[in-house]
Every structure is written in structure tokens, then in C-alpha cells.
Amino acid sequence: MSNQLLKGKKGIIFGALDEKSIAWKTALACHAQGAEIVLSNAPIALRMGEINKLSEQINAPVIGADVTNMDDLKNLFTESMKHFGGGIDFILHSIGMSLNLRKGKSYTELDYGFNQKTFDISAMSLHRVLRTAWDMDALNEWGSVVALSYIAAQRVFPDYNEMADAKALLESVTRSFGYHYGVKKKVRINTISQSPTRTTAGSGVKGFDGFVNYAEKMSPLGNASGEDCANYCVTLFSDMTKMVTMQNLFHDGGFSFTGVTQAVIEQMEK
Q: pLDDT band at residue 208, thresholds of 50, 70 and 90?
């Protein structure tokens, strides 16, 4: 159901790789609620993914950008503002990659060069995006930026590896830049700490099926789906949440505040 919560709003969505992506689902949800969108991803992801299919579906241009490259980001914002004929109202940062995970290195044997790249791509890229928007005055007053996080930023999930540190840094950037952008232009910046979700990227984490099944048993409402997360993003991009900023918002069916459930107890007693 559409009630046009985002009618007249214009946004950039980073990270839509395929139909499993939360970014993909969010683009569909925002479009259904009346928004105009520009899609962006890294050049290699544009080649590997199916973003052109989404582009046609929602009539959104695709502008490639390496989020670790300031010139690429400047071009993205320049071209997006040309396309929109003005400023930008919202941004979704759905970007993350761990080179140590890809190479099969455990947390206790990190390659620090890989680690630095992971932080740059998965966390400091948000700072770069915000810095570019700040320098170019690209975001409209009362704009909204959302980045996707995970509870491993607060709790230990051994196989989540260095991505846990990257998510903690991502949430810190959200708070710090959120203060400055709020003072300057009433722009709000938040993270959503989402349930483990079966995306192409998430499935690369060792033991991911165990993450999903455990979280399902530990969440009073069950795991939040990618579609649920997309709808939550819509509310945060809308004018209904204008006073929410610098927050890490748990969207996980109650997992984050549940000590134990009867389902988990019964599983342990088997």
C-alpha cells in the first residue's frame, strides 16, 4: 500500500546489487511512496549485479561511484543534482565488504592492509559521502541519511570478524557527523541495526545460516525481513521522523533486548 510518504522527495541509494539486496528493496519501496531515485554502486558491482533491471523498473538513472574516491563521489552528487534539478532529500548507505573474510582470515590473524580497506569501504565511506554532500551543499534542509548496521557492533559474533569493528566505526561516524549536520542544516543521520538478512553479501559470512536461525529463535517477533527494513527506511526518509537523529535503531524483532526465549531454552535442553 502506498500513501505517498515520500512524494516530491529525491534520493540516492547506494548498494543495490540484486533482488535480495536491502538497498534494492528500499529503492522499490521509496519509488512506490512517490520518491525519485538515483542508483549508485561500485563499478565492479555494476558489472556483477543486475542493477539495470531495477533502473528500468523504477525509472532511475545509474551513476557508478567508488565510495573511497572523492572525485567519483563529487561526480555522483553533481550528476544527481542535475538529474533532480536541485538538492537531495535522502541517502541510503548500504555498503560493506570485508577483505579478511573473503580471504578466510580469522579475527586473530587479520591482515592489517585488508583491515584498513574494509574500514574505508564499509565505514569511512559514509564519512566521505557526507563530507562530499556537506562541501557541495547537496542535501536539502531536514534531509535524512540512513546507513545499515548490525548488532555485532555491540556484541561478539566470532565469525563476523572485522566487520564488527567496521560497523562500530560506522555507527560512530553517524553520531559525530550527525551532530555537525544537524546544527548546520537540520539533516538527520541514523543507522539501522537490521536482523541478519539473506542477501548475497550477508551469505558470505561463515556460519550465516546459524546466525539467521538463532536470531529467529531469539526474537519475539522473529527476524525482520528485507522488505520490513525497506519500509522502515521509508519512515526515516519521511517527514514523520524529523526529530530522530544520531541514533542506532534496532530493527530486529526484539532480538537486541531479549536475554533468552523459551524456544532457545527448549533447543538447549534437547
A: confident
Reported as a single tens digit per residue, the pLDDT across 58-89 is 999 999 999 999 999 999 999 999 999 999 99
Q: Rounded to two decimals, what is the model's pTM? A: 0.95
pLDDT of residue 205: 66
Cβ 228 vs Cβ 196: under 8 Å:
no
Distance, in Å, from the CA atom of 23 to the CA atom of 40, rounded to the nearest integer, reads 10
Domain annotation covers residue 2: no
Question: What's the CA angle centered on 176, arms 183 and 136, to 5 degrees?
Answer: 60
Rounded CA-CA distance 153/39 in Å is 27
Write out pLDDT tens, residues 248-261.
999 999 999 999 98
- Quote the domain boundaries for residue 77: 10-269
Distance, CA of 169 to chain centre: 14
Measured CA to CA, the distance from residue 136 to residue 126 in angstroms comes to 15
Q: How far apart are CA 133 and CA 123, in angstroms?
A: 16
- Domain at 226, CATH number: 3.40.50.720
Q: Other C-beta atoms within 10 Å of 127: how many?
A: 18
Neighbours of 19 (CB within 10 A): 15
Which of 198, 199, 178, 180 lies closest to 189, judged by CA? 178
The number of CA neighbours under 13 Å toward the Cβ of 200 is 15
Total tally of structural domains belonging to the chain = 1
- Mean pLDDT lowest among 34-38, 201-205, 210-214: 201-205
Whether the per-residue pLDDT at 266 is higher than 90: the answer is no
DSSP conformation class of 62:
B
As given in the structure block, the three cell numbers for residue 188 are 538527520
